[in-house]
Each structure stands twice: as structure tokens, then as C-alpha cells.
Design a protein that fits this description.
13 strands; globular; Rossmann fold; binds uridine-5'-diphosphate
């Protein structure tokens, strides 16, 4: 298929571009490089340096590429930042996403796949979280993603545009070529591995007084390749709707650190710090719907295996991407 990948210079988008190229799809990446890395874009893919706020730029890119499907990864991803700069999140994750969607509709795109998030659920009353769990976001990041989910539903009802919105839990891990390089890095596993690499003296644990067995937050970590695999399955015609993507296993921050110590064979000192605003205590997915309807099955469900691939990538690229 001819596929446009927005945010294809970012973490998940770069892995997705790699896997799409492996399967012989014709891929063009649209990325502003505000957060992504040019060298993370698979050389087999075309590249458009996005200027999403320049009027007509997105529409012109779509006219040029004439994609059959769009995978929309571009967007801001930090809960904490969204609590400080909500406008940025509504502008980039809602207004800009709408530009992409409008351009897709105008070009007759058949499928629009969107990166949504577990943050749309807010503070769920029970885990595991299913797609029917009420969505009550507690930060502008989750709110903006939910707003765009609603927009997709209306475009489907009114224009018949087929969409899939994947609610990601915690993506981690790497392929040989593509891994996680956010600047600044705020995510747990890369931060822990920086300590293992000797680049940081210790990792900070944000909150040790949560109502969980060891007092630290519990998350559901999913291998980025498994996550991307669900997107490839969702390209099939007839697949439309909302799907959680996680493994269904929860690991606390302390358990993640202990796993990283085992995988790397290095000691990782940790310091307790206050809670980070906006962090729910426990997020664990039920991804039964994706398994049932997409035939999706995670290949790397074990945290050890996820961390091992991330560790291999960070050892090979200790400074991250060159540009
Ligand atoms: N976390 C932490 N130290 C760090 C980074 C993250 O204790 O250096 C915690 C964070 O508070 C959360 C969990 O680890 O409870 C996962 O955070 P991450 O930012 O990786 O993903 P999120 O769940 O926010 O999407």
C-alpha cells in the first residue's frame, strides 16, 4: 500500500516505518523534526519535512503522496508538559491532527490509524482496563487524545472514513535499528538504562506512597514491535474502532528497575522523589479485543525481553541518534 506516516522520525513511528518497508509498502514520512530525528527515518522511505502550521502544507503533502492509508503518530506525548502548557497539546494533538484528517478525507484515504493513549482513561476504578472503561482524562494530554478520538468517530459516521485508534499503554524496547531517544528523556526504561550505561548516577522514583504493593506506580509495558504489529493488522479493510494495546501485566517502578539490573548485570541506584503530577497509580490493559478482532498476539510479552532489546539498542547508540 501507499502509506503516509506522520511522526515517522519519532520512536514508535520510526519502528513502524521500518516494519512497513520490510513488508514492501511504499512509505512516506511526514515529520516536522521538532522532536524526531532525521536519521531515525528508514532510508527506504520518502521524507517530507513537515511544516504543519504553514497553511496548505499538509494538504499539499497529501496531494503529492496520494496515500491509501495514514498512520498518524505525530504529536506531543508528555503528561507533565501538558499540565504546564495545555494550549500546546490542544494545538498540536487536536488542531493539527484535524488538518491531517481533513487532508486524508479530501484525498480519499481509506484508513486512518491514530495513536491514542491509556491516559484517556484517567484514574480508572478497576484494572484491567477494557475499551468500555469510562474515559475521564486527568490531564490535557489525555483530554486532547480523547477529543481527537471523538472527531474520528464523527468523520466515520458522516464521511464513512475507516479509522482505528489504538490506546497505547507503555511502549518500550527497540529493533536493531530503531530505539527510544527523547530529548529530554522522561520515560522510565531509557532513564534506568542511562544509569546502567553510567550516564546518570541514579534514577529517580516519582512517588513511593502510592496504594500499590511496593508504593510505586504500576504500568503495562509493551514491546514497540508488538505495538506496531497491531497497526499492520489494522490496515486490513473492515477493521474500525478503538483498541487497547498492552500485555495485561503490571510492573511497578521498582520491579522495572530490578528487571533492568538483571538484564544489564549492573547495579542501578534509585532515589525516592515526590510524585509526578498527573500520574495514575495503576494502568494495566485488557487487550482481548485486539486479540479477538485483529488476530493480534504479542511476541515479546516478557518484561525481560523488552528491556533486553532496549539495552542492546542503547549500548549500540549510547548518545542516541546523530541528528
Ligand atoms: N517514572 C519514574 N522515574 C523516571 C521516569 C518515570 O519513577 O525517571 C515513573 C512514572 O512516574 C510512572 C512510570 O515510571 O509512574 C512510567 O512513566 P513513563 O514516563 O515511562 O510513562 P507514562 O506512564 O507516564 O506514560
Amino acid at each position: 500500500m501507499r502509506i503516509l506516516v506522520t511522526g515517522g522520525a519519532g520512536y514508535i513511528g520510526s519502528v513502524c516505518t521500518e516494519l512497513l518497508c520490510d513488508r514492501g509498502h511504499e512509505v512516506t514520512v511526514y515529520d516536522s523534526l521538532a522532536r524526531g530525528h532525521r536519521s531515525a527515518v528508514d532510508p527506504r522511505a520518502g521524507f517530507i519535512h513537515g511544516q504543519p502550521f504553514e497553511p496548505g502544507h499538509i494538504a499539499a503533502a497529501f496531494q503529492r503522496v496520494q496515500p491509501e492509508a495514514v498512520l498518524h503518530f505525530a504529536g506531543d506525548i508528555l503528561v507533565g508538559e501538558s499540565m504546564q502548557h495545555p494550549g500546546r497539546y490542544f494545538r498540536n494533538n487536536v488542531a493539527c491532527s484535524l488538518e491531517f484528517l481533513e487532508a486524508a478525507r479530501a484525498c480519499g484515504v481509506r484508513k486512518f490509524i491514530f495513536s491514542s493513549t491509556a491516559a484517556t482513561y484517567g484514574l480508572p476504578e478497576q484494572v484491567p482496563i477494557t475499551e468500555e472503561t469510562p474515559q475521564r482524562p486527568v490531564n490535557p494530554y489525555g483530554e486532547a487524545k480523547l477529543m481527537f478520538e471523538r472527531i474520528l468517530l464523527w468523520y466515520h459516521r458522516i464521511h464513512g472514513l475507516e479509522f482505528v485508534a489504538f490506546r497505547y499503554f507503555n511502549a518500550a524496547g527497540a529493533t536493531e535499528q530503531h530505539g527510544e531517544d527523547h530529548r529530554p528523556e522522561t520515560h522510565l526504561i531509557p532513564n534506568v538504562l542511562k544509569v546502567a550505561l553510567g550516564q546518570q548516577p541514579h534514577v529517580e522514583i516519582y512517588g513511593t506512597d502510592y496504594p500499590t504493593p511496593d508504593g510505586t506506580c504500576i504500568r503495562d509495558y509493551i514491546h514497540v514491535v508488538d505495538l506496531v504489529e497491531a497497526h499492520l493488522l489494522a490496515l486490513q479493510p473492515g477493521i474500525c474502532g478503538f483498541y487497547n494495546l498492552g500485555n495485561g501485566d503490571g510492573y511497578s517502578v521498582r520491579e522495572v528497575i530490578a528487571t533492568c539490573e538483571r538484564v544489564t548485570g549492573r547495579r542501578i541506584p534509585a532515589l525516592a522523589r515526590p510524585r509526578r503530577p498527573g500520574d495514575p497509580p495503576r494502568l494495566v490493559a485488557s487487550a482481548q479485543k485486539a486479540m479477538r478482532e485483529l488476530g493480534w498476539k504479542p511476541r515479546f510479552p516478557k518484561l525481560e525481553d523488552i528491556v533486553a532489546t532496549a539495552w542492546a539498542w542503547h549500548q549500540k547508540h549510547p548518545e542516541g541518534y546523530p541528528d
